[in-house]
Structure formats: C-alpha cells, structure tokens
UniProtKB/TrEMBL annotation:
Region (Disordered): 688-747, 776-811
GO molecular function terms noted in the UniProt entry: FAD binding; lyase activity; monooxygenase activity
Pfam families per record: ADC (PF06314), FAD_binding_3 (PF01494)
Family under the similarity heading: Belongs to the paxM FAD-dependent monooxygenase family.
Low complexity composition bias: residue spans: 723-740
Protein's name in the database: FAD-binding domain-containing protein
InterPro entries: Acetoacetate_decarboxylase, ADC_dom_sf, FAD-bd, FAD-dep_Monooxygenase_BioMet, FAD/NAD-bd_sf
Residue spans crossing the bilayer: none
Keyword terms: FAD, Flavoprotein, Monooxygenase, Oxidoreductase
Keyword Transcription: no
FAD-binding domain span: 13-369
Taxonomy, superkingdom: Eukaryota
C-alpha cells in the first residue's frame, strides 16, 4: 500500500483526474496547506481539445487561484454576431460595452494553454506544498470510507480525502449511493471541434470579414445545426464548435470526446450553409479535426459519500450551450478550497464534503437545466437576460465562504448576537437629563469628514447584509462603498468636547418591507467610535452598529493620515495625499459624505437569559432619511479638499491582537478595492443629532432567518405576504368548499388573480362542463423540433407525412365547416376535445402568468421572479383542485387545463428553478391527476362509454406531459416510500388498461404507450379503492408545509397572488419599474377594482 508523501501538516488529498477541475482543486487545496496528489489516466496530463469561454464568474474563480488567463493568451470577448446559415446578420451584441457590469472580464482561451497554466501553478513552488502529478495512472476503484484508491497496476494508496474529477465516465461516481447504475447517454447531438490559424482566414478574401474584428465571436444558427467561431491564443487562432444531430456524424463507441473525423463529413453536414461559411470550414486541418459526442446523464442522488466527493463532469456534465462546463468545475474547486481550509481535521471531512455539496448542487443543477433548455434553440430576450445574470452574477468564493460561516455559527451551543444593553435612559445627543432637545446647541458643533469611495465586489458585500429582506438593487457584481471618518468637536452634550467615528457605507442597498414596499439607501454595517458615550447612546436609541476603536489622525498641509487601533494593535491605515482646495459652495452634504437617500442599519438586541441564547428580544431595520435630517438642521460646509491620491490598508491581525474585534476586522480586510473613485476632506458647522431615525416597519414583525449565501446574485428573492389557502389535513372527500363560495380566500382585495377566480366561479354552470371538439393538438411543447429518432418503413413515413400535411393545411373557421366547438357527444370519432370550463381554466392560467411577468410591465424584480410566479400559478391550480371537492367536473376542468398550460410554453421559467422544487411540484401534479382518475373510478365514470367524452385524450396528454418533463429533466426520481410519482404516466396507462379506455389524440401516443410497456422496471400496481387511495391529503399537507410559503415571511400556505404585480402597491411597482413610474395608471387600477381582467399583449 502506498503512503503519503513526507510533509508536515495538512490533509493528504487524492484527486482522480488532472483536467481543468482536478488541477484547479489541487491549486485551491495546496494553498490551504494540504498535500495533494493527482492521478491522471493519460500519459501526458495535458488537455487537448480547442478553446473555452472564461465567463466573468469563472474568471473571478481563476483569479482567486492566482491564475490570470490573459497571461496564457486569453483574449477578451468583445462582440457577438449572430447569423442564419444563409443571409444577413440577425443581431449583434456589444459585450465590451457592457463589460463594466461584471467585476471581471469575459475571456476566450485555448483549452490547452489554460490547462498547462493550471498544471504549472499546481506543481510550482509557492504557498503550500506543490502538488504531485502522476500520469499514466488510471484509478479503477475507490473506497470512500478509508479514502483509498486502487490504480490499474494494482497499487493502492490511502489518503484523507478522495476527490473524483474523472469526467463523465467517472469511476468515483459509481462509488456513491445510487451512482453505480447511472449511465451517460447521448443528448441527441454531436459537435465537430477544431482550430485554424486566424491568418488563414484573413488571407482569404472570401473569409476575411469573419476574422477581421478582434475578440469577436460568430454564431451561425438554425434549429438543428449551429456553427460557433471565436478567437483565442492572443487572437492568433480561431476555434470552431459545430453542433449537429448525432445521426449526421459517426462516433465509434459513444464514449470519447476527442475522436477523429473527416473534413468530408464536416462539409457534408453543413452543405446547406452559405459558401462563405463552408469555405471557412474547409480550412480545418483533418489531422486535428475531432468529433465530440454531447453526453448527458441523470442527476446523481448525492455527490458525496463519507470521505469521497465528485466534482466537475463527474458530478454534473454540461452541454456546451452556456459556456459553463469548465466554469462550474473551477467553481467546484474554489468551494472545496473553502470547505477544506487550513486546520480542518480528518474527523471534519464527511461534514465538510456535505457542506460543499450544499453550496454547489443547487447552482450547478440549475445551470444544467438552463443549458439543456438552450439546446432547443434561441431563447426570448428576457429569459436570456435572466440566465446571464444568474450565471455570471456569482462569486463562488464569497458564496461558499458564507455557507461555511453560517454552518460554523450554527454549531455548538447557542451564541449571543449581542449589542451591550445599558440599564435605564441616559442623557445624550438628543436630549438632556430633563428630556429637552439639544438640537439648537448643535448648530455651532463642527465636523471634519475624510472619505474614500471605491469600487468593489457586490457578491462579497452581500454577505454583510443581515437577512433576506435586504438586497442590492442591481444584480451587477460591481458595487461601490465608502470608508468615511469624521472628527466632531464642540458637542454640547459632551461638555464641548468631541470624538471620531469611522464607518463603512455601502451604496445601492434596499430593504423590502413585509407589505412589499422597498426602502433604498446606503447601508451601514459597522461604525467605530473613539468614545464610549456616543457608542452607548447610538446603539440604544438609534440601533446603530457601533463598536469602540481608537482613531487617530495626523494632518499636514497637503496630506492627511489616519489609523485605527485597539489597545495599541493597529488594524487600519488610511491616507489622503495631494490635497487641493475646491469651492465649498458646490458641496451640499455634511458629516455623512457619500450617503444618498439615507442610512439603513439593522438593529438587534438579544433576549436576556441563558436559555434564550440566539434569540432576539428586538430586531428590525432602521432608516435615517437625509431629507428629514436636513429639515431639522442644515449643515454649512466651509472647506472642501480633494486628494489626488488615496489608499487604505486593513489588517485582520488575529484574536490575540484583537480579542473582541478580529471577526469584524478580518471581514473588512477581505473587501477588494477594484478602483479608488474619489477621496476628499469636507469641513463645516452644524452636526445633526440623527433624531429622524425611524423603524422601517410600523410595528415589530417576525424577521426572516439570518442571511444565507445567495447563489442568485444581488437581488434577493422575496415578495409581499398575502393570505393563502392553508394545507388540508382532511381526505379529499372532506376538502374545502367549492369555487363559488371561496373567491376571497387566497386573494388580495384588489388583483387580477382575484378577478379571474371570481369570474370562473360565476360562469361555472352546467353548460360550461359540456365537452366540445377542438382543432388538432399535436402536443408539442415550445422549442420541440420533433426530431424523433424512431425508425419507420419508408412507406409508413410517407403516409404519415401526407396525413400531417393535409391536416396542417385544413383551415379552422371556428365550427362553420371544421369540427371546432361542436358537441363531442355528437362526434365521438373526433379525438380532440375539451370542456368549456377546462378551456376557460387554461386561458385563465395564461392570464395569471402574464400578470406575474415583470417584463410585461417594463419592470425588473429579481432574476427568477417569473419562474416563481409560475410556481404560484401551479400551486393555485392544485388549491383549485382541492377546494373543488364537491364538484368533480370542476376538478376535471383543472386537470384538462394543466397539459394545455404546459404546451403553451408559459411554464418554462419555472423549470429553471432548483431541481428539488421543480420535481416535487410535478410529482404532486401527477399525483393530483391520479386522484382525479380514482375519483372517476369511484363514480363509475372511468369506462369507454363515460360521460367524460375526452377521457382517453386527456389521459394521453398526461403521458405526453410526463415524457416532455423527463426531456426537460423536470421529473427526476421519487425516493419516497410508496408509489413512484416520477412515473405517474405508468399509473395512468394502468388505469386505461384496467378499464379498457382507448388513448388517442397526441401524435406520439402509440410510441409513448409502447415505451412504457417496454420498460423492464414497469411493475406499477394501482392501489385498492378507498377514500384516499393515493394518500393525497398527506402529500398535499407535506408539500404545503415545505413549499407553500415560497418567499412570504409570516404565513404558510399554498398559492395566492403575492407575485401578481397588480396586487402590489403603486410604490412597490414604481420601485421596480425601469422608468420609476407605476406601469398601471388610475384607469387600469379602476378597471381592476371593478372586477375586470387584464390581458397582456
């Protein structure tokens, strides 16, 4: 058995695989003092392939590792141009123009150059122990419990941790629970990859224009074929990725991503593209032309087992549509470096690896879903924008650090989050001992404020926000902040003396109240003061986050030097140099330089008692509005000096030097300075007493949990609290009252959602439940290119095409000559029908969705708002079903509406949310339909001659729904005991067979039935008849308890109209509107109040 290399301290970490992810992990972990060994199956340990994107989030991660990709030949992505296969440009995007939105640049790098740079950094002298790379050493077995690997030559090596970075065909993942049976499969696409010299394209007059612009990448796109071209290697090479159906190119065994291909096959695939593109493709070197199977896999149940974890493609393989495969592997490495930091013990490893999965899984899985969605073709601009902000607006080091920090805070005995509490009222800056105001005597108090404003990281500052009611107003990863120090003198309440204070002021922060209104301002997380008296009064009376620090300054003629310390330990040094006077008349601010609308702070006072540790006695947000302060006292600026040069350094020192402040100073020291924006000194008279400070909420409210790391960027996800239907504990037979008596239970006093519910209830009579014929429904979801791989005989295929052509050419005239709206009972042969109530319910869902789409109102709330709005719509459908317990026809209307709602494409934003929420919801919806079938069965309506005339068609639609949900990976698996609702279509087919119901309608029905029948694992058994055969009451209650709240703080329940923008206050709509005006005028709101429904164009 092998032994660890000789070295002191740190863990012994074994990494299977030395690709981009494995090497990145090696760098991150060696920097933490660990001993790292990599085992690479190839003999060269050098990436081949072509080029990759280093998106802003990936660039942030690489820079944390000390890798500047521009030193490896990376070029900045400056412009994207999109063309059809033949024809003029469709659109272009100036990436360079918007680059300032992200802290780090979007780069394009040769994969081999990046890999070589990582390999050198992993093994080079420097911080930590250089990693050891073993090539031609294939790992064939892993023991997760002893952290032992077995090599192909039989050698066994034991470490403390094993990381599987061994790709899509990972050995490591087979050692995880549920991982042994997972196999990779084709996504239906392959990709040619190759590089050419850019000069070859420039020297050819026909292709020159496609290589002229530096940093520009081109996309030639069609529904099935795509060619992407972009530069790398100091703009000397052009990289090609040519995606196409896997039936158009040959893969030898479907496993290797670097198989050779012929130029002839490349040109044959793209034979219908323009001559210019084909001329460019023809420059491919056959010796380097490769074809790459685009593989996918089902989600792993877990990424970790004891002392083994997987990362990169071994955990989450990506299709190449969002430039995220390499980026996610690098982010994994960063997260592992945070979780396995210096000093972690072997005993800590299992828990830390689970924490790594907690930090990474949701984000990686979400981006996998976005990538799969992108494979179906171009996306609407709003969705593209949302995806971009989600992926790029992230810093994994900041995120994982906060996940770890929260975990460490939660361990051991409960801890105080404390401010000192002083007994009894005291005289202070706002009153004397008799309670009289001191404001008049503050007119002659003087101030001297020195400030440095700088550009920094929003994702890091976000971790200083108190909870999820606080957020940044923009998802940009760039933020601005100011360190401001003020010397106050002539203070009446201090007997004419004074003191200094030094604070961090963070711009662009907002607090969202429980009613949805937003208060914006400059957030103050910490304020140091040099005297105890103002600290006590400010904390007690204002809720200010004040702590003691000695603050001293030396002023020269043209310079100013400041230092902050505690008991002689200097933790901060600030300097202003090259000071020059400016006109003081231009200054309009007093002691709080750089503050905009006002100051936001978070007040917290703990409960008293050893048994109350960790509990707040008082906790709420406070706002100090500048406008109100200036009404009480107007400061007069007498002198302004601007510095030509300024800087500051903060040293976290250690607990010994700063026994009460280290945890704070250490966090301040982490804040990066991207650019100094301004530095100045302002002096004047008149010091406000901050008596306009007020609690934002009108009364104490239940506060949200402490802030968790947010993988979704700057805009926190939350919404207005509203009444919602409570989870039902009864069986379905004891569910709440029907629709006509429930219109006000879930809705706000004024909203389109309320009006829709009321309208449906008022018009739901006997006639609306009659089933009417409809035009043909093919059952295609949006972006479905119907590219089935099934093989047919030529004659059958031609017959099908003729039949489809004739049907597509038939014109609908709403029943004059076609079948639309004719009674289904009179035309039993017609396969497509829906009740009027079902159709109305479906149309209502579209309207519900539209009023939850910020883009329709020219608004931005947060990245996934529309997705959560759809989730609320789906929850309302479930509540509609539950509340209609006395009316099975209304329940049937709900069940008819759901597949039509899916096929409309409106549900798509919901599928972009986290996998667990999505799959749990669709499991519940599938279970709901099975409850419906059980209800029909109990009423003897589940039969061929049922009065439910569209029974076979709707059941077939649910087979199609399940199939498409699997395509979008939205069904996942169901690990709960009992029925497997991830396969609800199998139960639907079982009901159809049991009662001899013919399934018809969607064109894929026969294929779907055959696929279920061919499933070797199909052992689905229907439950025995009972009052609640599918355990619906229990499932509904459990779902409501876990998911019903979504983002509301104080109430639990299902559905409602919290995301319905028409239910919001005008102030809240203005806050999120692009032009800061309410998109709904008086005319629209009056109409909604009168019960009208808004339909969006």
């Amino acid at each position: 058995m092998g032994s660890a290399p000789e070295s002191e301290g740190g863990l012994h970490i074994l990494i299977a695989g030395a690709g981009i992810g494995g090497l990145s992990a090696a760098i991150a972990l060696r920097k933490q003092g660990h001993r790292v060994e990599l085992f690479e199956r190839s003999r060269f340990a050098n990436e081949i392939g072509a080029a990759i994107h280093i998106t802003p989030n990936a660039n942030a991660a690489l820079l944390k590792l000390g890798i500047d990709a521009t030193n490896l030949g990376a070029v900045e992505s400056e412009k994207l141009r999109v063309f059809p296969p033949n024809g003029p440009e469709i659109f272009s995007l100036d990436i360079k123009k918007t680059a300032g939105f992200w802290r780090h640049r979007w780069l394009l790098v040769h994969r081999a150059h990046l890999h070589e740079g990582l390999k050198i950094a992993a093994q080079a002298p420097g911080p930590g122990v250089p990693a050891r790379l073993h090539t031609s050493n294939k790992v064939v077995d892993i023991d997760p419990h002893s952290a032992t690997i077995t090599l192909e030559n039989g050698k066994r090596i034991t470490g403390d941790v094993v990381l599987g970075s061994d790709g899509v065909h990972s050995v490591a993942k087979t050692k995880l629970p549920g991982g042994a049976n997972l196999r990779s499969f084709s996504s239906g696409k392959n990709a040619f990859r190759f590089l050419i010299a850019r000069k070859d394209a420039l020297e050819d007059p026909e292709t020159k224009e496609l290589a002229d612009e530096l940093g520009t990448w081109y996309m030639f796109d069609s529904p099935d074929l795509r060619v992407v071209v972009y530069p790398c290697a100091n703009n000397e090479l052009l990289n090609f990725v040519c995606i196409h159906p896997d039936t158009m190119s040959k893969i030898h065994d479907g496993s290797e991503w670097d198989q050779g291909a012929s130029k002839e096959s490349l040109l044959e695939v793209y034979k219908d593209f323009s001559p210019q593109i084909r001329k460019l493709l023809a420059k491919a070197d056959p010796a380097t032309l490769k074809v790459w199977p685009l593989l996918d896999t089902d989600d792993l149940p877990t990424w970790v087992e004891d002392r083994l974890a997987v990362m990169g493609d071994a955990a989450h393989p990506f299709l190449p549509y969002r430039a995220s495969g390499g980026a996610m592997a690098i982010e994994d490495a960063i997260s592992l470096g945070v979780m396995l930091h210096r000093g972690v013990t072997v005993e800590d490893i299992p828990a830390r690896l689970k924490l790594y999965e907690k930090a990474r899984r949701s984000r990686a899985t979400t981006i996998q879903q976005l990538t799969r969605k992108s494979s179906h073709g171009p996306l609407p601009p709003a969705e593209e924008k949302s995806m971009t902000e989600y992926i790029y607006g992230h810093d994994e080091h900041d995120h994982s650090t906060q996940v770890l920090r929260n975990d460490l805070w939660s361990q051991g005995p409960q801890k105080y989050w404390r401010q000192p509490i002083v007994f009894g009222p005291m005289p202070g800056p706002r009153q004397n001992f008799q309670g009289l105001s001191r404001l008049a005597r503050s007119q002659k108090s003087t101030f001297q404020t020195t400030s440095i404003k700088f550009k920094t990281s929003r994702t890091l500052l976000q971790n200083l926000l108190p909870n999820d009611s606080w957020s940044f107003a923009t998802p940009s990863t760039v933020a601005t902040a100011t360190f401001s120090q003020t010397l106050l003198n002539g203070m009446d309440w201090l007997g004419g003396g004074g003191y200094r204070h030094l604070g961090l002021y963070i711009d662009g922060v907002q607090y969202t109240k429980a009613n949805g209104e937003v208060v914006s301002g400059t957030y103050l997380p910490i304020l140091f003061e040099s005297l105890a008296d103002p600290i006590v009064s400010g904390r007690e009376e204002l809720g200010m986050p004040k702590l003691y620090s000695a603050i001293g300054a030396k002023e020269r003629e043209a310079s100013y030097y400041l230092q902050a310390s505690w008991e002689g330990a200097v933790w901060g040094r600030f300097r202003w140099e090259g000071l020059e006077d400016e006109d003081p008349a231009a200054a309009n601010a007093g002691p709080l330089q750089g503050v905009n609308a006002g100051v936001l702070v978070h007040r917290y006072i703990p409960k008293v008692g050893a048994d109350c540790k960790g509990e707040a006695d008082v906790e709420y947000a406070v706002f100090v509005p500048n406008a109100d302060e200036s009404k009480l006292l107007v400061s007069k600026v007498t002198r302004v000096r601007k510095a030509s040069k300024a800087a500051f350094e903060i040293d976290g020192l250690g607990w010994e030097a700063l026994p009460t402040l280290h945890h704070i100073i250490e966090r301040l020291a982490e804040i990066p300075v991207d650019e100094i924006l301004s530095a100045k000194i302002v002096e004047g008279e008149g010091v406000p007493d901050v008596s306009s400070a007020r609690r934002i909420e009108p009364r104490p409210i239940a506060m949200p949990p402490k802030r968790t790391a947010d993988a979704h960027g700057g805009s926190s996800k939350r919404t207005k609290t509203s009444a919602t239907a409570q989870p039902q504990e009864e069986t379905q037979a004891e569910a709440p009252a029907p629709a006509t008596n429930r219109a006000s239970k879930r809705w706000s006093a004024v909203s389109v959602s309320r009006n829709l519910a009321q309208s449906f209830a008022e018009h739901a009579d006997y006639d609306t439940y009659k089933t009417l014929c409809q035009a043909r429904v093919d059952g295609k979801s949006p972006n479905d290119d119907d590219d089935d791989d099934d093989e047919f005989d030529e004659d059958e295929e031609e017959d099908d095409e003729d039949e489809e052509t004739s049907k597509s050419e038939a014109k609908c005239d709403m029943g004059e000559t076609c079948m639309c709206n004719k009674p289904a009972a009179e035309h039993p042969e017609h396969p497509f029908s829906i009740s009027e109530a079902g159709h109305n319910k479906f149309i209502d869902q579209i309207a519900h969705t539209n009023v939850r789409e910020p883009d329709a109102f020219d608004m931005y709330v947060f990245n996934d708002f529309a997705g959560y709005g759809v989730w609320e719509v789906l929850q309302n459908l479930v509540v509609d079903f539950v509340e209609a317990k006395d009316n099975w026809k209304e329940q049937w209307a709900v069940c008819q509406a759901l597949p039509f709602y899916w096929m409309s494409g409106a549900v798509m934003p919901f599928t972009m949310l986290d996998a667990h929420s999505v799959t749990s919801t669709f499991h519940l919806l599938g279970q709901m339909f099975l409850v419906m079938l059980a209800t029909l069965e109990s009423k003897d309506l589940l039969k061929p001659d049922s009065e439910v005339k569209n029974l076979g068609m709707v059941m077939a639609q649910y087979l199609l729904l399940a199939d498409e949900l699997r395509e979008y990976t939205s069904l996942g698996s169901d690990d709960d005991e009992g029925p497997d609702f991830s396969r609800f279509d199998h139960y639907v087919l079982a009901y159809a067979k049991k009662h001899s119901i013919g399934l018809r309608g969607p064109s894929k029905t026969d294929k779907l039935v055959k696929a279920i029948e061919d499933d070797e694992d199909d052992e689905m058994k229907l439950p025995r008849r009972s009052a609640d055969p599918w355990k619906w009451a229990k499932a509904y209650k459990a779902f409501a308890q876990e998911h019903g709240t979504i983002f509301t703080v104080q109430k639990k329940g299902m559905g409602g109209d919290s995301f319905d923008i028409t239910s919001w206050t005008s102030a809240r709509r203005k806050q999120h509107s692009f032009n800061k005006k309410d998109p709904l005028g008086k005319k629209e709101m009056d109409a909604i109040k009168q019960g009208m429904v808004m339909q969006m164009g």
